[in-house]
Amino acid sequence: MDRRSRQPDDVFDGETRGEPSPRVARVLWWWSAGLVLAVPGVSVLVAGAGHGPRAVMAVGLVLAQACALRWQVRAPVAVLAGTAAAGLAVWALLPAVTLTGALLAAQIALCVLSATRPRRVSVRALAAMWLPGSAAFWAGGPAGLTVYLLTVVLAWTAGQWRRAQQARTRAEMRRAVVEERARIAREVHDVVAHTLSVMVVQAGAADDVFTRQPEQAREALRAIETSGRSALGELRLLLCAFGPDAPEGGAPDQRSEGPSLERLDELADAVRATGMTVHLRREGVTDGLPAAVDLAAYRIVQEALTNTLRHAAGAAGVSVRVAVDGAWVRITVADDGRASQGSAAAAGAGRGLVGMRERARLVGGRLRAGPRPGGGFEVAAELPLEGAS
Fold it and tell me: What is the CA radius of gyration of the chain?
């Protein structure tokens, strides 16, 4: 089902009790009341022919049962007790009506109670519904008892099945919400963290040379403005991608405007504006990659450069290599600095590294990150092209 066409009234919205929505409750009442009028109602009319006042009273009790089912969702215990008493009265007035048929409304109420209330409550209701079994045995013998107990157990089991189905639906919805939140958090982190890191470094550089070299300070301020505008543009695309009118499956293919390996030069220039040397090397054709792989690769490079700016103390340069060989996109980002003591990068447990690993995993790839033997820090990722969406 399309996520935009899924209306609140179409799902069970009681998180703790699993109650259906008002619209579903009304439909449930129409069907259950119609069933009661069609089965025990017709049976009473047939069995009551020639019984005069007793037949009239039985018909009134059947109508009362059908009306009572209007509240079977809101107060299933009370409805179960009332319909069971009315059903027993119908059977007492007209023994020709089977006990199973006379208690059909109570069985429907038991099914709803089993679906919407805790199991301990429904089990007690099931035990209470077994009590009239002796009357069923007295009226119909072992066959009558078997039929009655079987219908009661089936009603309770149907409610339990519906309850389990509701629980699975709610669990899937909660999991989808958590995954969507994590996806949004990764995107916002990648956009904001990188841009703010660049802007902080540029602002510090501008402050250092503000009085001695005003033109260089102005260049740093212009770079800050450019970075800010770029981040705002990406955030607008992000809001459009996760908005109510976004296409199913994620953001549209807007690589001409949004993040893409084709824009690595812009990413490198933003880092170079902070004074760090960036060596960018491409191998193979990066145009026309699957959208998911293209975005993941760009974000991994972006986050690796952000970690270099934030955590690689004393780094003078960083090298970025992106190679496409027809089956894989291989990415290597290595700097010549040293990891700051106690930093998230050094520990390998920062949000940025977790996000990069998750991006690689989502497209079926792998990523490793850690200190280089000769000094510095390296991030290496391999993203498969086959099977990527």
Answer: 34
pLDDT tens profile 237-252: 666 655 555 544 444 4
Pairing of strands 277-283, 317-324: parallel
pTM tops 0.85: no
Name the burial class of residue 81, with classes exposed (0-12), middle (13-18) and buried (19+) by CB atoms within 10 angstroms of its CB: middle
- Name the burial class of residue 229, with classes exposed (0-12), middle (13-18) and buried (19+) by CB atoms within 10 angstroms of its CB: exposed
C-alpha 6: how far from its chain's center?
Answer: 13
The tokens 């009306």 sit on which residue? 67
Instruction: Find the largest Cα–Cα distance for the chain.
Output: 113
| Buried/exposed code over 153-184 (b: 16+ C-beta within 10 A; e: otherwise) | eebbebbbebbeebeeebeeeeeeeeeeeebe
Using one digit for the tens of pLDDT, what is the confidence trace for 118-176? Answer: 999 999 999 999 988 888 888 888 888 898 899 999 999 999 999 998 888 888 888 87
Amino acid symbol at 93: L
Contact 346, 372 (CB under 8 A): no
